[in-house]
Amino acid sequence: MSLTKKIKEFALDIGYSKVGIIPADSFSDYLADISNRSEMYSFFLKGASRAADPRSQMPTAKSIITTVYDYSQKNFPQELTDKIARIYQARCYNAPPDRIHGARPQLLRRFLENAGCEVGIGTIVPERIAAAKAGIVNFGRNNFAYANGIGSFIYLTSFLVDQELEYDAPTLEVGCPEGCRACIKACPTQAIYEPQKLNPLRCIAYNNFFRQDEMPGGSFVPYDIREKIGTKIHGCDICQEVCPRNRKKVTAQKADDEYLTQIAKDYTLTNFLHMTDDFYQTRVQPLMHNYIKHKKYFQRNAAIALGNLADPAAIPDLALAMADTEELVREYAAWALGKIGSNPAKQVLEVSLASEVSPAVQREITAALLAM
């Protein structure tokens, strides 16, 4: 049996859904596309440049082994999908090595090394394009990759190796129904501005994750985006949920994920707003350990969600948040109280303004009061 066949069979045996292999050539078209939209992707240009050139990361690289994992094999509780994208609920996105989905790539890496391959460490490639070049996915107009028989609820992982292997034929094509624009119409923030073109700065996920103090643009979530985020606090699946190519997967009867069922009751917006260290460690970290490393951004996102719900029952919790030690939390709690807009909310804002020392929070309180 050839090494290529052994690799593919082992990958399928340990739970990957599809495997493809391509030469470790550069992805110049990918980099050109990102560079041509640099005003949208300035935060990512350095990473894109690195990903586009595999051999700059591993000079001995000859092949890219790319894999698909179907993470939608079990049911996701509605009370979680209202707030958290499915890929994070599935606990497979860059999972740590001591978790089941982190162990899988380690098993494949060990198999490759035992087979005599040098395997790149810390390498990255444009996963969706690599998988399409390897013939295991095609593209959707929503910018996601789709695997035949699965849909777009997939996680892609690639490995650079120093061996020449047998290469697969590409599927660099859009597989969507002719004329379908369901994802473009459904995107609340109009982040998908034309087929296969996304402005990440308007994407709900970007505004959840990357609006942080140390990022370009800082932690400020634009007002027009806030109002369209709804109750999403960590990622968004709307453009995948409405896609006819995913309908069968979304509506299929599947077994519950018992872990998610057990923890879902704790995933209230108020628990996120008043996040304790224990909640962060036992509820947030197992699912959402990738992008947000500070509790205050989860708290901010929860405040936005509560503001969008505009439920007066949240006023006492937002009043407590107005006394939070984090300026960012107070700022967005003030915005949320302004969105609720009742007399009790107004009273909380007026009392808070009298003692608030942060100019940013003072501005948000004043704006909220003026809008009432």
UniProtKB/TrEMBL annotation:
Pfam families: Fer4_16 (PF13484), HEAT_2 (PF13646)
Any one biological process term the GO annotation gives: tRNA queuosine(34) biosynthetic process
Keywords, alphabetical: 4Fe-4S, Iron, Iron-sulfur, Metal-binding
Alphabetized SMART domains for the sequence: EZ_HEAT
InterPro entries (UniProt xref): 4Fe4S_Fe-S-bd (IPR017896), ARM-like (IPR011989), ARM-type_fold (IPR016024), PBS_lyase_HEAT (IPR004155), QueG (IPR004453)
Domain 4Fe-4S ferredoxin-type: 163-197
GO MF term list: 4 iron, 4 sulfur cluster binding; epoxyqueuosine reductase activity
Coiled-coil features, chain-numbered ranges: none
Residues of the signal peptide: none
Name of protein: Epoxyqueuosine reductase
Species of origin: Pelosinus propionicus DSM 13327
Source taxonomy: Bacteria, Bacillati, Bacillota, Negativicutes, Selenomonadales
